[in-house]
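Friendly challenge for the regulars: who can give me the structure tokens for this chain first? No prize, just bragging rights.
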Amino acid sequence: MYRLIECLTQEHHYGLLALATLICLTGSCLTALIARRLMCTAGMRKRFQMFLAALIGGATIWSTHFLAMLAYEPGFPHSYDPFLTTLTLFVAVIGLLGSMTALGQMSSPVNFTLGGIAFGTTVSVMHYLGMTAYQLPGVLDWDMTTVHASVLFGCLFGIASFHRFIHPVTSYCWLGGALFMVLSICSMHFVGMTAFTFELSPLVEVPPKVMSDTTLGIFICGVTGILFIIGFISLNIEAGADNDARTMIEQNASIHALTGLPNRDALTQELTRCQSLLRLDKGHQAQTSRDIPTRWA
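First reply, four minutes later:
Bragging rights claimed.
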């Protein structure tokens, strides 16, 4: 615990750390909103939403990791392997696609467990693969007990997050799922950051940087921002299409198929509306008594 506090308070730049947390929270909320829709869609729409959730969630994990790494201040020259840095993004997206498939396609009552474990495992694989992209003038010595603990934290909070999507108690349970998703990503990352000690070695050379830390940070924020905008627009289009479909169904249910006139269901809805008006304002009583005979004569 002391090592974790020291890592957070002494070895990181607070501004970049706050930015990484904000992106993690925003991306987790978007992923949670998309993931909960997997329960009520089917066919091509469900497959599209699984891919979209994987894309947004994978970008969230990837950007959170590397922004937090940019916030990390080891006190030594360092650089990032461009190939491995890019590869980790694809690993995160593919892993999230697997977890969303387990969440949305499997009919097992424990699909949230399998999905949550897949989510936590994806965060862990992406983190430690990303650490191999972090090049320092020395060797990292890993404490495997702490490594295993970090993976366990990621999986447990991942299971809790996916449980909220499958078994919501209220319409706001997706917020709980998003919060557990943030905890899965952040706890795994920062516990993992305490799992190594660094030993300087004259035999290890740090290759020159392909891009500066500032340029890399701008690149990460740019890629993530574009994906978040795509996710937000897609989510709004989906919600709008659902609302239009629901309105059309309600209208068709209130119209007689042969005559095109309002049917008994429409009359029931109108009477319910009028009763609500009467309870709120007695002044509507006279107007209501005139409207009903006119509209339903």
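The two ends are 76 Å apart (CA to CA). Residues 164 and 177 are 5 Å apart (CA to CA). Your move, everyone else.
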